[in-house]
Design goal:
Layout: H1 5-16, H2 23-27, H3 30-49, H4 53-76, H5 82-95, H6 98-101, H7 112-126, H8 131-134, H9 139-152, H10 159-164, H11 170-183, H12 188-210, H13 219-226
Helix pairs in contact: 1-4, 3-4, 9-11, 12-13
Length: about 230
């Protein structure tokens, strides 16, 4: 790959956003782009989990394109530009890795867990704890950040207390379940994705066994896959 390929990509996007370019790209707003970025990020996650290298390259190319769009849109609005973002990234990495870049730093780490704990400590010093409560992203990620913050403040529940207080209101029950899993050190997002993959595999097996498609399968058999403890 040539060193100037990134410059070529920047010029292509600049042309797309020009008066002679594409109306959709020219009118693209940060709000719309950020929603598309969420979708692309999950598509990259799916590609990584499937170990599909071609798909990983495809999704990374989409995310790289998004980054350049962010740079150019921010620059056009006089809010930020590529240089300020890169400078901030450099400063942030150096600041959060004093054990690598600061020769006077007296702490040494032998494991990734030790580095992560130190990173959390450094992050706390540089930001307000309430920032995680102000974060407004996808519900699952927002819940994880909020609950982890509460647990760090030593707000915890007895597991029996959580299970006994599962509400008839699904929203309350969902929050309690998230709290219980995170308190156990589990990731609801990862565990639920694994559960969904397990369900998909079982349905595909049933389709193959019955030589039928999903819409023609016995609904009671599907329910048994979804809730094996209730329909066994």
């Amino acid at each position: 790959m040539k060193k100037n390929d990134i410059n070529k990509l920047e010029k292509i996007i600049e042309e797309l956003r020009s008066d002679k370019g594409c109306p959709w790209d020219r009118d693209l707003k940060l709000e719309k782009l950020s929603q598309l970025t969420i979708e692309e990020s999950y598509e990259l996650l799916d590609a990584v989990e499937k170990k599909d290298n071609n798909k990983i390259i495809d999704e990374l190319s989409d995310l790289l394109t998004h980054m350049i769009f962010y740079f150019q849109i921010g620059d056009s609005l006089s809010r930020y530009n590529k240089e300020t973002v890169i400078e901030h990234a450099i400063n942030k990495l150096i600041e959060r890795h004093p054990h690598v870049f600061d020769e006077t730093y007296d702490k040494k780490f032998s494991s990734a867990d030790e580095v992560e704990q130190n990173w959390k400590s450094l992050k706390k010093k540089s930001s307000d704890t309430s920032n995680d409560l102000n974060f407004n992203g996808p519900s699952g990620i927002t819940a994880e950040r909020m609950i982890k913050t509460l647990i760090e403040l030593d707000i915890k529940f007895d597991e029996k207390e959580i299970l006994d207080n599962l509400s008839k209101d699904p929203k309350n029950s969902l929050f309690f379940i998230y709290f219980l899993m995170i308190q156990r050190g589990e990731s609801p997002e990862i565990e639920f994705r694994n559960k969904l993959e397990e369900i998909k595999k079982e349905i595909r097996k049933l389709e193959k066994k019955d030589n039928s498609s999903l819409d023609k399968l016995d609904k009671s058999k599907i329910k048994q896959i979804l809730f094996p403890d209730s329909f066994s």
